[in-house]
Amino acid sequence: MRDKPLEHCAIFGVTCDDVAFSVSKLLYQGLIAQQHRGQESSGISILKTGGKIYTYKRKGLVSQVLTDNKLSQFWGNVGIGHNRYATTGSSEYESLDYIQPFHFKNNDIEFSLAFNGTIPVYDDIKKKMDDLGRIFVTNTDTEVIAQLIASIAIGTEKWPEILKIASKLLDGSYSLVIMTADGDIYAIRDPKGFKPLCIGELKTEKRNLYFVASESCAIDTVGANFLRDVKPGEIVHLSHQKDIQSELVLKAERTALCQFEFVYFARPDSIIDGVSVAQARLRMGENLAVKDPQLLDQEFKKNAIVVPVPDSGRSAAVGYAKQSRLPYVEGLMKNRYVWRTFIMPGQKTRKAAVKEKLNPIKSVIQGKDVILFDDSIVRGTTTKQIVSLLRQKGGAKSVHVRVSCPPVVSACYMGIDFPTTKELIAGKNKEKYGEKEYINKVRNTIGADSLLYQTLDDLKKSIGKDESQLCLACLTGEYPLKHTDKIKHLEESILKERYKKSEQNGIY
Ligand code: SF4
């Protein structure tokens, strides 16, 4: 099993008031800046005002799918794009229908949709759509959303109205970007704001452009100015003809931005809902150092070094080293050319993949007390191998694991790929050994001399948001969705079945 969870998707959109200008290269730039959010497939939908929507999507990285040659064939002043990592519907993954943007067209309506999130309980909506005679070509929540929009459109032709009604019927995490056949873009964020979504603009003498992206790093990459985040429950209308228009259509009692965006998913140069990801990670490291009992041992400190797990543990490790006044040492070399180690058949091959990817630098590790800093421990398999590598190949005297994120003890049903508690090293040990014992059991399993996790309070403090603003469900088991009971009782077998399909397909 892959150790780290994966974000499902990145979305991007751009509209330009100059119909003689093509946005295809900008779509490429916006998607490649967000490659970390989805590495299995990529695609774009593009339209020249007054013309048709053209969609091109394939399996592969952005650079493999959207080559110069391909981009030159897609010309238009409005477009959306998507990077995907698949879980729902993975068994049919080879089919283009499962790759986004999802281009929907029938006699009544045409649009293209790119989606980041998960609607965990969509079977009721799907059944209603089935009863209405709608034919589904995939088994994804993305198509459920598309079919829902198409059904609503039969009763009302105005796009904002259609989307307002659809938003009220969906319960889950969703950031959506929709491009209509008229060349308008709508950006929608669910009322709890689980996933990030932001807008930007670029005004030059010749033309005006508006952008929407999952992360602000994409807005920076295309040279645009970051304007603001899309608010939870808001629909933003980007048009090549008008200024930005927006409406807050749903207001929840609380918001629930995914804490994992700050811990791991998002790029450090992104700013989400007013918080710099890099600064939040630095504070996570500093706060952990303040609470670390190991640092009271002055003899230990004389021989200790702080080593990050590259790349995700880096920012927090800098904060920890700064606060503890210990040397920060790049003690693990990462081979940047080993891509996608998670698509590996067989456990032995996956173990070998960690060795291919990471190598300890013996000259700086040998004989040292290593404080190994990582952003999170989910399944624990990679952490165990890194600890072992540091001891056996690096010659570390001792290895002490420090983690930015509190123990991950519950499954995520909001779009991240850890569907059962049994797969979580902290979750399963907590269930088996109870609150007092389980951390020690985890430490034992990963083979560390000591193990310290961030506290929930310090995580919130580091992000600068409280429990009424963050989703912490994988850390607390409290799910901030309407149909919580339904979700908790969602048949594990269904989730397992969905997950098994991705395993059969070699996607771990
Ligand atoms: S359960 Fe965890 S990973 Fe899932 S949305 Fe909530 S905070 Fe993010």
Describe this structure as you would to a colleague:
- With 508 residues, this protein is an alpha+beta fold.
- The chain folds into 2 domains: 247 residues, Aminohydrolase, N-terminal nucleophile (Ntn) domain (Glutamine Phosphoribosylpyrophosphate, subunit 1, domain 1), CATH 3.60.20.10; 203 residues, Rossmann fold, CATH 3.40.50.2020.
- 34% of the residues lie in helices and 23% in strands.
- It has 19 helices and 23 strands.
- Strands 3-2-4-1-10-9-11 form a 7-stranded antiparallel sheet.
- Helix 5 crosses helix 6, helix 9 crosses helix 11 and helix 9 runs antiparallel to helix 16.
- It is globular and about 75 Å long.
- The C terminus is likely disordered.
- The structure holds iron/sulfur cluster.
Defining traits:
single chain, 508 residues, alpha+beta, Glutamine Phosphoribosylpyrophosphate, subunit 1, domain 1, Rossmann fold, seven-stranded antiparallel sheet, six-stranded antiparallel sheet, 19 helices, disordered C terminus, binds iron/sulfur cluster
What are the SSEs and their pairings?
Layout: E1 9-16, H1 24-32, E2 41-47, E3 53-59, H2 62-65, H3 68-72, E4 78-84, E5 102-105, E6 110-118, H4 123-131, H5 141-155, H6 159-169, E7 173-180, E8 185-189, E9 198-203, E10 208-213, H7 216-221, E11 225-229, E12 234-238, E13 245-248, E14 257-258, H8 260-265, E15 271-272, E16 275-276, H9 277-290, H10 298-302, E17 304-308, H11 314-324, E18 332-334, H12 347-357, E19 358-360, H13 362-365, E20 369-374, H14 381-392, E21 398-403, H15 425-446, E22 450-453, H16 456-463, E23 470-471, H17 473-476, H18 484-488, H19 492-504
Helix pairs in contact: 5-6, 9-11, 9-16
Residues 194, 258-260, 412, 414, 416, 471-474 line the site of iron/sulfur cluster (SF4).
